[in-house]
Amino acid sequence: MSRKIIIVGGVAAGPKVAAKVMRNCPEDQVTVIERGEFLSYAGCGLPYYVSGVVKEQKELMSTPVGTVRDAAFFQKVKNFTVRNHTEATAINREEKSLTIKSETGEEELPYDKLILCTGASPVIPPIPGRELHGVYKLHGVEDAEGIKAVLAEKKALNCVVVGGGLIGVEMTESLVAMGCRVTMVEMLDNILPILDSEMAVLTEQHMEAKGVKVMTGTRVEAIEGEGKVEKVITSAGEIPADMVIVSIGVRPNVSLATDAGLDIGDTGAILVNGKMQTSDDDIYAAGDCVETINIVTGKGCFVPLGSTANKQGRVVANNVCGIPDTYPGIVGSSVCKVFDFNVARTGLTEKQALAEGYEVEFCLAPAPDKPHFMPSAKPLFLKLIADKKTRKLLGAQAVGLGEADKRINVAAMALHCGMDIDEFAQVDLCYAPPYSPAMDNIIAAANVMRNKLNGFMQGLKPDTVKEWVETGKDFTFLDVRSPAEYEQIHINGTLHIPLGAVRTKLDSIPRGKPVVAFCKISLRGYEAALMLKAAGYEDVYVMDGGVLMWQGEKVVG
Amino acid sequence: MSRKIIIVGGVAAGPKVAAKVMRNCPEDQVTVIERGEFLSYAGCGLPYYVSGVVKEQKELMSTPVGTVRDAAFFQKVKNFTVRNHTEATAINREEKSLTIKSETGEEELPYDKLILCTGASPVIPPIPGRELHGVYKLHGVEDAEGIKAVLAEKKALNCVVVGGGLIGVEMTESLVAMGCRVTMVEMLDNILPILDSEMAVLTEQHMEAKGVKVMTGTRVEAIEGEGKVEKVITSAGEIPADMVIVSIGVRPNVSLATDAGLDIGDTGAILVNGKMQTSDDDIYAAGDCVETINIVTGKGCFVPLGSTANKQGRVVANNVCGIPDTYPGIVGSSVCKVFDFNVARTGLTEKQALAEGYEVEFCLAPAPDKPHFMPSAKPLFLKLIADKKTRKLLGAQAVGLGEADKRINVAAMALHCGMDIDEFAQVDLCYAPPYSPAMDNIIAAANVMRNKLNGFMQGLKPDTVKEWVETGKDFTFLDVRSPAEYEQIHINGTLHIPLGAVRTKLDSIPRGKPVVAFCKISLRGYEAALMLKAAGYEDVYVMDGGVLMWQGEKVVG
């Protein structure tokens, strides 16, 4: 009854499938084919190896008790065979065999089940000079070692990170930690496309505060230097550079699948069903090479992540062994550390939701992540996105010094369950002052959203209000914070009436034109708006997120 | 159209109802009746005020921008009236009026809607000597001030905390922080009844490591002293004491409701429907005085928490103003900080689940809360409880230095949605190395549970194995950790065969009697068990949680 199971790819999903198949069906013969040297290493840990947070390369490829996961380990402990430095070159579906090539020549391996865990490769754009010494990507142990070697040579290098995605941002932090001066160059208007622009801007500001130069809307035109990189030519000028890291994204490795005629999804990744089967029943695929379903939209997507690879690997192994298991897809959760900022999101951004055709409502809810009286409280900026029609949550974003991922995981669960905002606002989360406010930030945000969906609050983005100011629109810009807060910092051209005085000072708030009320975070702004509406004012708005989210000029002191 | 809304109780739910009613229906006349001096204070913050983490009492009763929430504030800003030092003595339901009593005499207030937010009061058992100076509860600002005054007199007091519940544990930490020697006396076998015993024991050990003497299974018989407390007499001997804190729980304040003939639930708290209406349609109730529904069991429960009070207050206000809103109940989430330990749980404990008649499966899953190569990784002990029949999650517990509440919030969401373990194991949570392992702890735990529910793993509690050892049962106690781990620490009487050698050393593992395999956390123990089963062994168990959860003797070095 011993079946031949062949797995192509030995980094993340591959070893997971192999180990789990051997646990499920110990009589099977499992072979993992790996092109490179290294197996089962934690690629996501590479930025932390570069910065020295992780001391030794070997820690990234060890078990929690320190055993290195090499071919011998897998054979002895997990009872499967690994052939590294071996490339899979073709699938012969009719004969059910895989052609492999290594130093010892070509070979044909018959399989009962074949699993493709071929991963993804970094996209390297055709920038002139990309081949210069000192230009790296960060995809694999070799890159990390190269970068570390350069860093070891001298301190305070000028580094240019091309691409403001997750890896670019993580690498930037690592390079700064190693004493480098870093410039991040991003072609789009904002870094971190996992976020909407108002949240991305907060992150950019934090990076700037940490000494990083963030150049958005900037295109890299060439990398120049004599033998090694010396400068980067961009659409916004030249940047001196001793090292360049290109991290503009990855592309699934699908040539083996394509050559074999397997179906490829619209995203360019391998198409699989819920069992992780490709269009050939005997061929499965998992990890960074497959397309998965976005549960929120029901559409295919390509979101390569280590967490997904592990779960998919398990589903493959179960199905290969006849244990029913289904991978439902993702909701789009991700998190990254950007210096002291925690940046997390799940579901759709507002931009994505609009592109998908939803009738979108949003809310911005900045607040301390614990009761204000706890010294450990830290600011956290939340944004929720909901569908006006169904009142369902569509997405959530959190950035700031506070605990972002804790809130976003809760929102991710709401997305998995298709919760509407009204249910979501009532969930029973852990509460004690060292952990969260009595109304957790995500619940407070859900309540702001309910107020909006119920028509009690008409929100305006700070950006929109800024546009009103700049275009000279005739409206009352009403600051209802306390005199002390106003003295500390305020926005020019506002009318300042502390909330407690609004009811008695209606005379000084003109009728017949729009009023935009705000405070620090716009909870009091909301209360002021309600007072005005109760007093017969008609065109009353709240500036979402208050002074904290205002990106225009502020008068300090 | 101005209605008279009267709210009894001004601490948590009361002011919430009042403020939200005024936002919803600004034309209403809202009056809050409060027996005490203080309004709208954060009772949950009191332990942190005692320890000095919160510097000033006033911070607990201020808005986030520092405005004290007194009667004047509520009148001016929120537009409702507060009458403190005023007691509500009777409800006249037929006339729809409330009798109140203050220094100025008795008065009859007519109402359109009445809301009871009468809270709960600490249970003070009839212990002789409970009236002595130096005996405190911790329920209100006055107690906190009394305790702080005693602490200010001298350092290194002997304190006895009676009752090992959430408040007792939080107070213990605060007292130790203030330099006191603390003994905790708990009548039951373990502290923290929110946890099952194996999780509570870990917390007790942590408290002991922090210098607290934890006396479980111990009854307080008397408090003795001349004028002020000097010692506590317990079933396990005398304890010298300069101060005693009694925190054995709270009881809902329902006399006003009972006298008016309103329905009371089985738990002794006021019975309300999903709209938070009592058995009188014009009388609502919210907060620590009401019974709520446990969503997991569908049964009534009494779980007074500030987070619940706030949400219920909002539901009352919406319904009072004709905005449909339903409070669904709780799932039983709570968290507390115990020195460096984070202790959280949701749903049912195993004990509760068994008492409810479920066919219970459990699993213990200790693991670092981040990838093992991240220096910021900290140990976290997880326990899941599931229903064998439906495979639904019933509860989760987490204790340790790692982030407990993050995982338990995710489990709470799964309970809200009635997720089964198979769905739960596939959820898309935020992943990056500074935050969690690629397979988050709660997902890894769910997979252990799936293995058990699928019959792949037969678990034994460390306690059960300990009993087997102590009663001389004939079985093989198989330690599959590495030689280095074994040298560092091991359990007497075990057979040590590292996992990698199990397949080749089957000869030394006797057949025909039970084998209990384990490792550090029992993942390798599980693999060993599978190897043995594949080799024809029949009676094979895994010791859940491994060495980390073993409470018996350990040989160090």
Taken from the alpha-carbon principal axes, the silhouette of chain A is: globular
Tally of alpha and pi helices of chain A: 17
Total E-strand runs of chain A: 32
Radius of gyration of chain A, CA atoms, in whole angstroms: 27 Å
Classify the beta-strand content of chain A into a percent band: 25-35%
Q: How is this structure best described in words?
A:
Two copies of one chain form a homodimer. By secondary structure, chain A is an alpha/beta fold. In chain A, 28% of the residues lie in helices and 25% in strands. In chain A, the strands form nine sheets. Chain A has a five-stranded parallel beta sheet. In chain A, α1 (13-24) packs parallel to α8 (306-320). The radius of gyration of chain A is 27 Å and the shape is globular. The N and C termini of chain A lie far apart (79 Å). The model of chain A has no long low-confidence stretch (mean pLDDT 94). Chains A and B meet through α3, α8, β21, β22 and α10 of A and α3, α8, β21, β22 and α10 of B.
